[in-house]
């Protein structure tokens, strides 16, 4: 390898590390609220992808120990941020006095995966409670055929399906109420479950996605010009106020349209436990599955679907399904008291 090529590789590695560390530094300042930093932060795991190539190449080509230590810094940051997600979790003790509850969240994308596929996924997973988003009348009618598996249902389809929702349960539903957290947005579903004599509040949530403003430069180039989360912020404010009033076991389940780098995620995890962080493996990305706006995507990119639980429960398993489509993969968590 020529000296020039080695120099270019070292320069590329140093530049990447410097830019990444500078971005992470900005994220620790008040500037983190700027729309541009919030947008980039939502794809934070992808920012570490060049580590796979640049770090080994730089270590191979660099002669300075200082340079070698410098390019390894992002590896340490990655380990601190995401390392626990790739380690085995300690088993959760179980006893005859504890009950288990499996919960599933699935955005059915207005029936786009196909009614037969939706029913097959739900039947094969056989979770105790299933929270669904984007339920159309056609999807609701198909789900009614699962009454033997789920004798208790709270289905609230809408004509366009985008705002629709529903809950399927093996356990009695004592109360079922729907309303938009902000006028004109998705339905928010609040369900009270009777689980072997234990009352548990389940909130089936579907927050508005951020609005990405873009400028078209020429015929093909599109440049981001804004990242507006004001509607979602309003929904989250009301959701947090609702959580503060609930007593006993609480589950917040659904498509929150935010990543674990969003300020709202921090607010929720100050009150509740993220089941995937507690008992899942890997990044837990749920979106997109297969495509975005008909453009094929070979892998999921972000995690926007969640199952949160109150402190009186513990998750002993959490996993993302290997299918769903074309937008969301389903998510399942096994919980116990």
Salient structural properties:
2 domains, Deoxyribonuclease I, Chain A, 33% helix, six-stranded mixed beta sheet, alpha+beta
Report on the structure:
This protein is 33% helix and 30% strand. The protein has two domains: 3-86; 100-336, Deoxyribonuclease I, Chain A (4-Layer Sandwich). Strand 6 and strand 7 (198-206) form a beta hairpin. The longest helix is centred in the N-terminal third of the chain and has 24 residues, at 3-26. The protein is built from ten helices and 16 strands. Helix 1 (3-26) packs across helix 4, helix 1 crosses helix 5 (65-82) and helix 4 (51-61) runs antiparallel to helix 5 (65-82). The protein has helices at 3-26, 35-41, 44-47, 51-61, 65-82, 115-125, 137-143, 230-245, 263-269, 275-279; strands at 100-107, 129-133, 152-156, 165-169, 173-180, 187-195, 198-206, 211-217, 221-228, 249-255, 273-274, 291-292, 295-296, 305-309, 314-324, 329-336. By secondary structure, the protein is an alpha+beta fold. The radius of gyration is 22 Å and the shape is globular.
CATH fold-level topology of the largest domain: Deoxyribonuclease I, Chain A
Low-confidence runs: none
CATH homolog superfamily of the largest domain? Endonuclease/exonuclease/phosphatase
The CATH architecture assignment of the largest domain turns out to be: 4-Layer Sandwich
Main sheet properties: 6 strands, mixed
Span from first to last CA? 60 Å
Q: Helix coverage percent of residues?
A: 25-40%
Provide the structure class: alpha+beta
**How would you state the average pLDDT, rounded?**
92
The overall number of domains is 2
Shape, principal axes of CA atoms: globular
Order of helices and strands: HHHHHEHEHEEEEEEEHEHEHEEEEE
Number of strands: 16
| Neighbour order of strands in the largest sheet | 3-4-2-1-16-15
Name of the CATH first level of the largest domain: Alpha Beta
Report the radius of gyration as a whole number of Å.
22 Å
Q: How big a fraction of the residues is strand?
A: 25-35%
Number of helices: 10
